[in-house]
Every structure is written in C-alpha cells, then in structure tokens.
Predict the structure.
Amino acid sequence: MSRQPISHWMGETYSVFPSLNNRKRAIVTLALGVTSALLTLAGLFLLLAFDSTPGEVAGPPARWPGRSVLKHPENRPALLVFVHPQCVCTSATFAELAQIGLLSSSVAAPDVMIAAFRPGSNSAWRIDSLTARVSGIPGARVIWDDGAIEARRFGAKTSGDVLLYSARGALLFEGGVTASRGHEGDNYGLTRLLQVLRARAPQGAAVHGGPVFGCSLASPRGKVSNPVSLTMMPFLELLKARILRLARTVWPRPAAGGDFPNQSVWLVPARAPVWHV
Amino acid sequence: MRQPGKAGRHVKALADQYARATIRKRAAVVDRMMIWLLAAEWLGMMVTAFIVSPRVWNGDQSGVHPHVWAAILAGPLFILPAIAIALLNPARQATRHVLAVAQMVVSILLIDVTGGRIETHFHIFGSIAILAFYMDWRVLATATAVTGIDHLTRGLLWPQSVYGVLTASPWRSAEHVWWVTFEDFFLLLAARQSMRDLKAAALGNARLYWGASHDVLTGLANRRLLQERFDAWVDSRPGAASAILYVDLDRFKQANDVLGHAVGDRLLALVASRFRAFAGPGVTLARVGGDEFVFFRTEIGSPDDAKAMGQKVLDSLAPPFNIDGHEVLLSASVGIGLYPEHGTTLRTLQDNADRAMFAAKSRGRNHCEMFSPIMLQRHGTVQEIARDLSLAMSRREFHLVYQPLVRGLDGQLNDCEALLRWHHPVHGNIPPSEFIPLAEESGMVVSLGDWVLTQACLACASWQRPGYPAVAVSVNVSAEQFDQSGYAEKILRILDDTGLSPSLLILELTEGILARDIPRTRAQLARIRDAGIRVALDDFGVGYSSLSYLAELPADRIKLDRTFLNRELLRSTAIIESVVQLAHRLGMQVVAEGIETNEQRERLLALGCDVFQGYYFSRPIPAAEVSALLIRTQPESSVAGELEALNEAIVTASDAEVSQITSPEPELVA
C-alpha cells in the first residue's frame, strides 16, 4: 500500500482554467452551450434545407423534340440524362443508374445518352473522365451539350434530370433518381424509373419521378448561390408543406385518385417549390 | 477482511468514494481522448468535404460547396465550444453529455458531407463505441437520443433523405433506431460489467486502505491516518491552533490480566465507542497503542477548549463498564499538547502530550495535564534514569530495607517486608514507583526480582538466632517473575543456596497475578506451598479479583490495602470486619497496612486484624538494624518499645543521620 494519503491516491482531475471560480465557470459553460446549440441547430437546418431542396424543372416535352441534334434510337426506348460534369451530385446519379444493368434480359434495354453540360466547345473540360464514370451504366454514351442547348430543348434545368422516352418517342418518365443532393441509396425516383422500364407502371401519362437534386445547368443570373444566401421563405414553405403532409398521415383524407392508391400520403408536393441553388 | 457494522459502512462509503474517484479519473482520460478525437474529426471532415464535394456549380460558374462551409463552420459552431466546455469542466457528468452530443453531430454531419454514403453511417456506431469508454449508460442514451432525433426528424420531414422512400414509414424508422439500440445493448452490458469490476476493485482497495489506516479492534484511526489528517490540516491551515490529547487508560493492564484479553479487547472497543460519542466532527480519534488513544482536535479557540475536551475524556470513563457481568471501573490520564506552541510536528506534539500524560499519572492518575516545558527537563531525567537502571545492578546501587510487621496481640515481631531502594549517584534515592515501571518495561524486573529474593533470604537467614523466635521475611513478586516456568524450583534453589528455611519466606502476590490463568497459577502455587513457603495476597480489595479466587487459590494471609483506613469509617469498618471473618474462616491471617496512629491500631485490633505494618511501628530499616533490633529484644517480649525508640531516633534525626541509619549495607553474598 502506498504511503501517499488517500486524497493523493484519489487524485484531482486536471483543471485548465483554475482561475475561474465555479460560478464564472458555470456561466461561461452555459453561454457556450446555449449559443453553440442554437447556432448548430440553425446550421443543420440550413444544410438540411440545401441537401433536401430540389433543383428547378421546366417540364420536358411530351414527345421527343424534332429539333434536337440528339437522335432518337430506332425501336428502343431512350434514356436521356442531363448532367453537369463538375457537379458532385452527378456521381450519385450515375451510381443509381448503374442499377439498370440489374434488370432482366427480358426488359428492353434503353439507349442511354448522357448529355453533359459544357460551357462551350473551347472548354478545357475533358470527356475521358466522364466516360470512365459512366462505365457502370450499360450502353451509356456521353455527348457534350455545349451551352446547355439540348437541355433547354428537353426542359432540363438541373443536373441529374432523367427523361425516358418510349421507342415511339413518347415521354414515359421524368425526374431525379437520387434521394437528395449527392446522396446515394434507395430512393423513390429510381424505384419508379425501374418500374417503368419493367413496364409495370401505369400506362398513359408520363410518370413523375423524384425531385431532381443537383447543380443548375445554367443560371440566368450567372451567379452561384449557397445555403447562407438562401432566403428562408421557400424553406419554411417546404417545411410547412411537409408538416401538413405529415398531419395527413395521421388524419388521412379520402383518396383523391392518382397513379397509386396511397398517393395521398406522398410527402412531396405535386410541384415542388423552385429556387436556384 | 470483512468489517462488521459501522466499520463495514465506513468501508462501503470509502469504496463508493474510491469508485467515484476512479470513474472521475477515467472520465477525465476519456474527456481528453474525446477532445483530441473531435479536433481530429474536424480536420478530417474538412478534408473529406473538400475531396468529395469541393464546389457547387451553376452552369459554368462555381463556388465553394456548402458542405465545405459546413465542415469548416462545424469547428466554431459546436466542436470548439464542446472542447472548451470539456476543458472548463473536466470529468463532469454534463461534460460527457456535451461531448457525446458533439460526437454524434459530427457523425451526422459527416454522413451529409460524404453524400450519405453507407460506409459513413458506421461512424455512428464507432462514435457510440468510443463513448462506451465512459461506462455510463446515460451518455450512451444521450448519443442514441441524438441519432434518434436526427433520424426521426429527417425521416418525418424528408423521409427520402433517410429511408429512400417518400413515405414516413414508422417501421423504417424503427429499423434504423433498432440497429443503434442493438449496438447500445451490448455496449451497455459491457459497460455494466466493467463498472461492476471497477466497484469490486474499489471495495478491495477500500478494505485495504481501511485495514492500513484503521485499528481493526476499535475501528478508530491508526497512527498512519492520524499523521495524514495532521499533515492535511497543517498544510491547509498552517499556524491555526489545534490540540493533541494523549490518553492512557489507568491500570488497563491489570484489567486485561485479570479479565482476560478477550474481555480486555471488548473493554477497549467500549472505551472507543464512548470516546467516539463525544468526539464529534473536527476531531480525529486514533488508537496508537494497547491502551493509548489520541484525540487530534482542530480549530481550538483557546487552551481551555483542549482542557474541556480532556475533562470530557475523564468524565466519559466515569460510569462503570459492564462486560459479561463484570463491572469494570476505568480511569485515564490525559496529556495535552497544543499546536503550534508545543510542537509543529505530530511526533513532537505527541511526545510532549505523552510527557504531560505521565505528569498526570504521577499526580495520582485520572487527571488531565497540559504540557509545559519544565516537563521536558523532568522527562530528560526519567530517560537518564531508565538508561542508568541497566547499570545500577552492576554498580551495586540497589539495596534492600525491611519494614517490620508486628503481631497485634503480643507486639512480637512477626516478619519483615523486604523493600527495594535505589540510590542513584546523581539523583539520590529514587522511589520504587519511578524505577519499578521502567524495570518492568525493560524486562529487567525478573533479574531484579531474583536479586531481591536472594538478598532478602540471605538477610533473613542472618537474623535467625538460637533461642530467639524465628523472624520471616516477605518479598514482593512481580507478575513477570511469577509467569516464569519453573519459578517454584528457582525459589527453592535460592532457599537452598541461602540456607533459609522455606517456612520463613512469605511471597507477596497481587490479586491480579493470582487471577490470571487459574489452573496454571494453582499448580505454581501448589508447588510453592507444598515446599512450605507461605503466600500473602497483597493490596487486597482494590484489584479486580473475585472472592471465588480466594477459595480456588488459597493463601496464608491477606494484606488489607491501606485505602480502607482512609475511607469513611462506618463503611470501611463493615468491609474490614467481613474480610477478617472471611479470612479467618479460610484459615488466613489478616495484615493491616499503613498503620500510622495508635487509634488505627486499636480499631483494627478490635476488628480482628492479626498483624500490623506501618510507620506507627517502624519505617523501613536496614537488615543490620533488624538484626540489632532482634538482639536488643528479649525473647518472647514485645519489640514495640524498641521500635518506638528507633522511630523516634529517625524522626528527630537530621537528614544526614537518617541516611546513616538507613544507609545501604554491604551486599550479602549467598
């Protein structure tokens, strides 16, 4: 047994600010804690708002536009994907689309065209890296879309917008295939796309996929926004819509029809609020 | 080692204290680990954000990606505040929760920053595993709650970002929460087991510490803990007044000898509990020796406070102790040393309080004395005496004197009691009350006792004259002598060597000696009495003996203690009468000691006492004087007249003459 007194054996823990008395210490701790908690919560909400806010969609044409320089393949459905090659969300879109390869051989494989935005033909952006990144998508080919001309023709404004046209040139599917910005994983848009490809989705009007999460293909203001510069109003509108939808899950209204019987519990508004990111 | 009752509770409390201290220490270590981890994660998160999503694009325009901003701002927003809180409040419960929340928010943010990659979700599990180092289920609960709140909020408001579906399925939420809970369950089990081990180790440590710092018999502090408390007090309040009370139980050794060690131990425990009852907070009560206790009282206003406490010690012992039907009366001598006047170290204070305690003992015991510097001088003398005692025998500084015992009926000299004297070359005559305890302490009492016996036998043998009545000699025997194996044989050898008849030797034993280990004592006594040696019970009536001992251990005479003469007349008369009757019925003589007046002699004679001893008849005289006395006295006549003449000579003589009358004679050699 050590000859040290018990107080020594038990020891005192370190003290970095020994000059602060307990009262001051408590005040500083409380102030730090409360401020930090509030700012962190606000920051997390802003980040969540950024990650969960879909990009702008203009609405694609119901039939393949004749003016497009992109040629519709004969007797095959065409899967047209508009991407921004520098956008980090593009990788998530490619990763999700790779699941097309998992479809059975009985399903007609679409002709996958990746329309990659390029500011102009004199841009230094290289196609090689992009080609390598799409190698996971069966039969995919990359085409430069200089100045987003084709994107405008097809009504795509946000990177990650996926359009599926039938062999006859009719729009079957439009929307995003990622859960949120740059997020890979199960998501509603991809599920619907795969259903359409398996011809299991209801026939008739084009199927709306998930919201499109990604960078803007062309900014009318030519300026990049970030979450800090976002106005809170659209976010609050979205929040309100989600809460209302959530309330409806608790007190459901009679089904008003739609693609699916449970459409009334969808949490995404029919037309999502639009703002630039 | 299992401590019962109060001590057990004390150990348990100590174990809790140890466990809390260990948990605090461990928490401090984990706090530091979490601080470094959070700092590293912040750096890692910024690098990851920059690699995974450096910029956000709008056509051909780009800016820093919000994920990079989020990773950078995570530092000032919550990582650095959490670190600051941890540094401000190390090892606190709240700190653990703050760090747990920060760690889980880092996990959440990292998942966002890396684009929700499945792999980064494992960061949550890793974080919870790291937090398990705290071994605190509440911390794990906080971490789980943060993850749950995050997932449920996102799941309800933006279900596709968490579950990949647009509906807020409770089952999907449950599935996500389940995996975290699943992990928590095993971590909690592990933490619980670790905590049990920690508490068991703490209990073991507490028992060890308790054993090392407490007296097991009484549960009081021991010397070590006393030293610790004293040092802690002096360190915390240098110069503040405090007091050490050194308490020594009077005649405890006798009680222990008479009643046995088991009862003696219980008596000590009872004494400790009485002391504890009034000690109160601010007082450390320690047992520092067999029957020695120390009170260390802090915060005394004046020396009177210490004296009042000393009086409380004496008062607390006043009521008799009742143990197994034995009523035991105890008293104590208390010495007080004040800090810092009488010493600045515990050793010095204790030594000085010890000196004061000895002074209290010399005042007749059951006293309380404050230390004074003059005691140092006296104590120095005592130490010198103790040192010289071992040389006194070889220097022939001891000598014997003999006090005559006279028969009541005819005034004839019955026998003489041999009394030891020490003439110190520097300090002069030293009374036996001073050097006998020192001899007992040093173990020298046995050889000294043998010397006394031999010298007394030689003297007695020299007194015998043909035609004159035989005169016996009585010799006091110490417990240490009597405890020797073969003591009876040793006496017979001495008698043989000195040529004294066994019938002329009377051994005076105290009741305490006789009451110990009855069968062994009975056997020893039987051998002595079978040889014709007589046995006297000395100081009868003041010890701890039971009357039944008288029947079991027969003696030839009992010597009534002189205190009976000083007590209230009526009561003492009744007692003496009873004792005399009892003794006579058992065939014993009764000797009355301490006779100083004729009235006392007449009263005791009327009460039936057979033999008298005291200054009324004679002071102790040298052996040669006894011889001369016997020669001067006609056979069959009273020696009273001769003794009276001798006494008067001593009383009226100057000091030098007295010294000459009682001066040591040359040592007799067998």
Q: What stands out?
A: Residues 10 and 210 of chain B are 9 Å apart (CA to CA). The radius of gyration of chain B is 42 Å. Confidence is low (pLDDT under 50) at residues 654-670 of chain B.
